[in-house]
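Ticket 4471: requesting a sanity check on a complex prediction with 4'-deoxy-4'-aminopyridoxal-5'-phosphate. Repro inputs:
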Amino acid sequence: MEIKLPKFCFLEDKFVPWEEAKVPVSTHALHYGTAVFAGLRGYWNADENQLYVFRIRDHFERLHKSVRIIFIELKYSVDELIDITKELLKKNEFKCDVYIRPLAFKSVGPKVVGMDITEIPSSFLMFALGFGEYLPLAGGLHVCTSTWRRIPDVAIPARGKISGTYVNSCLAKSEAVYSGFNDAIFLTEDGYVSEGSAMNLFMVRDNTLITTPVYADILEGIVRRTILSIAEDLGIPTEVRPIQRSELYVCDEAFFCGTGVQLAPITKVDHREVRDTDLPLTKKIQKEFFATVRGKNKKYKHWLAPVYE
Ligand code: PMP
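Returned structure tokens:
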């Protein structure tokens, strides 16, 4: 994964040089994961000399929903967050694909040791990195079913994109990598397929594109929603329904999707190859998706926010 570090970060209302962006060691979020984050991508369009941020409003609307879940105050409106993001990208003079990380977190207060977060002030930072692939997009992934279960909504809601929840993801992903797989698929507590370690999941059966429902303890992914719209526009039948683990062993095609992973084909699940290794439907959707995010698809240009005026 190629990463290009930024010159500036946004922290506490200011743009500060990257090396000087620091938080105190007593930051509550550092100890207890009391933060929520977003992950956005910006795509460089060389023909238009333009950087397009994908579905920026949807990401910040979700961030606003997330902070409500864990009592974090986010003092910037969605419009202000959009302006800060554009300003940050301009200040860093990015002319490449980028990954943007906003983080709203519980900072330092009178009760830093303890679980009562009601009096701990909230803080906000955002940075962006020059960023390439998170997982390989060509060649196909070999994934396993994790021995870890997806943390249920009644423990920590996955829809909240809450930092602490991601220990669950790190356990699954690291176990998969140590065992020689590219990534992992979580099952819910009752044994249905949930999602990947930090991405949503689709499979194809009999020319129908199927993904797991929100009640399978998934993050309500923005790319997942995008794929469902694109597929419908392409006339591909879609279903959102519970998926059993063994369905993944007999499916025709499968892929992960999400902002980081983009749209990455899966060719093997637990050592079983998907049935159609040519991945015709996945490739069709992948092509449309990448044309869309890079601003080469007029139809979906309303999803893109240009950075350079
Ligand atoms: N599930 C999890 C757990 C995630 O962290 C993410 C984001 N990387 C996704 C799914 C995909 O969400 P989105 O399409 O909004 O990036």
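Notes from triage: The chain has seven helices and 18 strands. Leaving this open until the requester confirms.
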